[in-house]
Amino acid sequence: MATQGNASNKDQVEDPQEDWSYEESDALTPSQSQYLRVLEQRISLKNNYLEDPSHEEWVLKAVNRAAYSAYRDCVDNELEEQAKALVSKVQ
Q1: Rounded to 5 degrees, what are φ and ψ at 85?
Q2: What is the CB neighbour count within 10 angstroms for residue 85?
Q3: Does this model's pTM top 0.85?
Q4: Please, which contacts does 15-18 make with residues 24 or more away whose CB atoms are closer than 8 Å?
Q5: How far apart are CA 91 and CA 1, in angstroms?
Q6: Residue 62: predicted pLDDT
Q7: Is residue 24 very low, low, confident or very high in pLDDT (cuts 50, 70, 90)?
Q8: Per DSSP, which regions of the chain are E strands?
Q9: Which helix (H) or strand (E) holds 67?
Q10: How many CB atoms lie within 10 A of CB 43?
Q11: Phi and psi for 35 in degrees, rounded to 5?
């Protein structure tokens, strides 16, 4: 019974990033979907890191570069509009 209690607690936990996730489309290839997922993760990482009151500037620069790199990967794979939409939803 303890296991069921844990499972219901898991069901109640909401993903704070869920409201701004991109919508997967059947028109995307698996690799294109992966590029968008990576961008989404990098943006989430950046936002979470910015909330840390003791964040360091050099780490923030690295996180920003990682997010930009993921954005460029999307652009290079014909996902510029989706990437822009994803970035604009979180800013």
Answers
A1: -65, -40
A2: 14
A3: no
A4: 17/44
A5: 43
A6: 96
A7: low
A8: none
A9: helix 57-76
A10: 23
A11: -60, -40
Structure tokens at 57: 């500037």
| Residue 22 phi, psi (nearest 5) | -70, 155
Contacts 24+ apart (CB under 8 A), 70-73: 70/35, 70/38, 70/39, 70/41, 70/42, 71/39, 73/35, 73/38, 73/39
Side chain identity at residue 57, one-letter code: E
What does the domain layout of the chain look like in residue ranges?
Answer: 27-90
Tokens of 45: 């990482």
For residue 22 the two structure tokens come to 């991109």
What is the radius of gyration, based on Cα positions, of the chain? 16
